[in-house]
Amino acid sequence: MANSGQSALQRQLQRGGALDPTSADSAGLADAARGMGAAVFVADCDRARSRSAVLRAIAKAVDFPMYFGGNFDALYDCLCDTLLDQKVGVVLYLQKLHSGDPVLEEDAGRIETVCGDAAEFARENGRLFAYVIEHAGAHPMAEPGVAAAPYGEGD
Fold first, then answer.
1. Which residues, in sequence order, are CB contacts of 46 under 8 Å at separation 6+?
2. HSE-CB for 42 with a 13 A CA cutoff
3. What is the per-residue pLDDT across 43-64, written as a single tens digit (0 to 9) for each?
4. Among the residues of the chain, which ranges form H helices?
5. pLDDT at 137 exceeding the cut of 90
6. I need a labelling partner for 78 at 20 to 30 A (CA). Which of 46, 54, 92, 118 fits?
7. Separation between Cα atoms, residue 29 and residue 91, nearest integer Å
C-alpha cells in the first residue's frame, strides 16, 4: 500500500506544478522526488514577515547567486536557471508561508504565480518543477515589550 502511495506521489511530481501540502509529508515528498532524480529545496518561511524576508528564505534554500535581485522577476529567472542546471528538475517546498499576514497576503499570491510560471517553463524545457506552498495563517501578535526574533537568527 505504501508503494502505491509512493507511485501516486511520483505521478503527481512528474506532472509538475502545485502540489497539495496535505498529499504527503515533506519527508515523503523529498524521498519521492530524490528517487526520481530531482533536486529538493525546502525554504523555511516561518519567521519571514516581509516580501524580502520570504525571498531571502527561498534564495537561501535554493542557493541563488549573490546577485539575486530580491524581486519577483529575479525569483523567476533564478528558478528557471536552477531548473536548467538540474538533469531532471526541482521540487520547491515553502514551509509555513504566513500568507495570512496582511503584508504577505498579496505577495503569497504572486509567489504562487511565479512558481506556476516556472512549472510551465520547466515543461517547455523537458524538466519537472513541482512546488508546495504550505500556507500558514498570520504570525502571532507580538507581545508588548518583547522583541521578535530577527529573521536569520539561529540559521
1. 95, 96, 98, 136
2. 15
3. 999 999 999 999 999 999 999 9
4. 2-15, 26-35, 51-62, 72-85, 102-124
5. no
6. 46
7. 9
